[in-house]
Amino acid sequence: MADGPARTLVDAVDLAPPGAEAVVGDEGRVTYGALRDRSTRLAADLVRRGLRPGDRLAVLLPNGVRWVVTALAAHRAGLTVVPLNTWYRAAELGHVLAEADVALVVTDRAVFGRDTVAELESAGFPRRPSDGVLLWGEGDDLPLAADPPPVELPGPGPTDVALILFTSGSTARPKPVPLEHGKLMANTREIARRLHLRPDDRIWLGAPMFFGYGCSNALPVAVGAGATLCLESRLDGDRSLAFIARERCTVYYGFGATTRLLLAAPTFADHDISSLRTGTTGFSAEEKRLVVDELGVERVCSVYGLSEAYGHSAMSDADDDREVRLHTSGTVLPTQELRICDPDGAVLPAGGTGEIELRGCVIDSYLGRADLDEGTFRPGGWMRTGDLGELDEHGRLRVVGRRKEMLKVKGINIAPVEVEDLLIAHPAVAEAYVVGVPGEDGDETMVAAVVASRPATDLPDALVAWIRERAASYKVPSRIELLATGEIPLTATGKVSKQLLRDELARRTR
Description:
Layout: H1 9-15, E1 21-25, E2 28-31, H2 32-48, E3 56-60, H3 65-76, E4 80-83, H4 90-99, E5 102-107, E6 110-111, E7 114-115, H5 116-122, E8 132-135, E9 161-167, E10 175-180, H6 181-195, E11 202-205, H7 212-225, E12 228-231, H8 237-247, E13 251-253, H9 256-263, E14 278-281, H10 285-294, E15 299-304, E16 314-315, H11 322-327, E17 331-332, E18 336-341, E19 354-360, E20 377-378, E21 382-391, E22 397-402, E23 407-409, E24 412-414, H12 416-424, E25 429-438, E26 444-452, H13 459-470, E27 479-482, H14 498-507
């Protein structure tokens, strides 16, 4: 058992009270003592199979006990975990497995109805005789042929890589992001402080574990605090509400789409979810308001973060005023520094809008190829995020949008997020995305793609009037297109692809 604050995920599990519940979900329940025992047994088996410290183990499983036990076992064996997106198909899997140089994949024969073995074979895995696939069926205690004999487990150190996440913007292929144990635990400890987390808290995660929001945020936050992580294998409005109510979850981890899914559930009013006290959410003021006023999570925190910066970089406090939490992303965490710069790297004063740059608990570089770092890192350890924001006189961050997404319409710079916030505040709008498409005169034309929350007649005209009442006329889109949720294109990592959306909306003008 480690002394002082946990410096690795393994330390955190070993420091937690063994009788406290660690994980609960569709695959059952496990205490911290059982989590320690099962992950130790599986780690011994991984060592017996020939895996050595620094090797990469990929997890291709649904949210649940198996995912967490596998990750902790890999860490005890000194391995790095590569979370695999369960939405990926063969080509995407092949890219990630090759880029991360994965030696072993732990999965089930079928995940969400897909033959994962066949999918991995189509992806060209295993690539070499030393690689392999370890199948762990749902309901099995552990994927062991027999209990392995006790072995010396190397375990991780604070500077060892805990996770390799794959993240991408709207156009790039996913980039490998290496996250170290020590920075991971230090940063998530500060997140827990802003949440005012307690050991008896129960964290409900409304996202897959393979996203950074799960594996590099909710998991280490929960384990570091000795709290319970409540996981569902798949979200469903009515079922998820029943789960939250039954388990008396106290911490809400969900963004806009998750919030709207719960609020739209036919049985929403039938479930008592008043146990929810705090949590994290974003991004627009309206999405945050829905969590506070409609879900009733009165002390929810707003956040700003990215995978490369270990979860969150700026965050409000659970005790902050409502307006601070709705309209800013709070202040920078003590583990990081944040500045706003112009394109040349000059630091802007309070109130100036520019690119958000970070240092501290951030990656030093992407994994593998040096060309992935091009344009991202400045001297002095500063990382360029590509996001635009401004700091107020209290050091609170307001995010304006992505640098590459800024529009120039008739010579005027427009941040799409400002128009998106206006649109999503309309009661008939569930989602809104604003892009620029080429105009006839070479200038950009602002077009909005809107997903309606309920049937509405003449919604585009109503939205034009809505914006005109609330903003300058140049912020009114030239065109508003109604799309179904399934028509919004996504990147390989599940984010909305503004590039693909721009291409689709441009085609509709022809």
